[in-house]
Amino acid sequence: MYTSNLNNLILNSDSYKTSHWVQYPSGSEYLSSYVEARKGDYDVLFFGLQAFIKEYLSTPITHQDIDEAEMVIQAHGLTFNRAGWERLVDKHGGYLPLRIEAVPEGSIVPVSNVVCQVINTDPEFYWLPSY
User: Fold this and answer.
1) Which residue from 17, 34, 68, 70 puts its CA 20 to 30 A from 110's CA?
2) What does the alpha-carbon distance between residue 70 and residue 11 come to, in Å, rounded to a whole number?
3) Domain map of the chain by residue range?
4) pLDDT per residue over 17-42, tens digit each?
């Protein structure tokens, strides 16, 4: 299965992460994901979050994105939360309901420290994959 759509946010993830939602405990409402440089000999210069948000999060997910993602993810042998993605389009206009907290861009941070945290703001969408 090949796709030339590099802007489909649903597919902008490791494919195995798209099936994590079935592993979350019943009654889950919120999921927190974070970014850190786990190891290294040098401090981290944190930058690029604003560009990522502008490039990927400012464009809504569409039903066409869902169709394409379902085909690709199922071709990988994984389960796909089509109903959840369709609810996201219907309820939030295709925009991910997220709160992003981060150190200021341009900060220099020692390795093994969180530089960015992403949390869903709508309990219905706790299952969104971490990017």
Assistant:
1) 17
2) 9
3) 9-125
4) 888 888 889 888 998 999 998 899 99
Say how far apart CA 60 and CA 129 lie, in whole Å: 16
| 3-class SS of residue 79 | coil
Tokens for 88?
Answer: 């996201």
Residue 81: which of 9, 21, 29 has the closest Cα? 21
pLDDT tens per residue across span 39-81: 999 999 999 999 999 988 999 999 999 999 999 999 989 989 9
> Residue 5: what pLDDT?
63
Domain 9-125 of CATH type 3.20.140.10: yes
pLDDT value at 117 more than 60:
yes
SS (H, E, C) the chain: CCCCCCCCHHHCCCHHHHHHHHHCCCCCCCCEEEEECCCCCCCEECCCHHHHHHHHHCCCCCHHHHHHHHHHHHHCCCCCCHHHHHHHHHHHCCCCCEEEEECCCCCEECCCCEEEEEEECCHHHCCCCCC
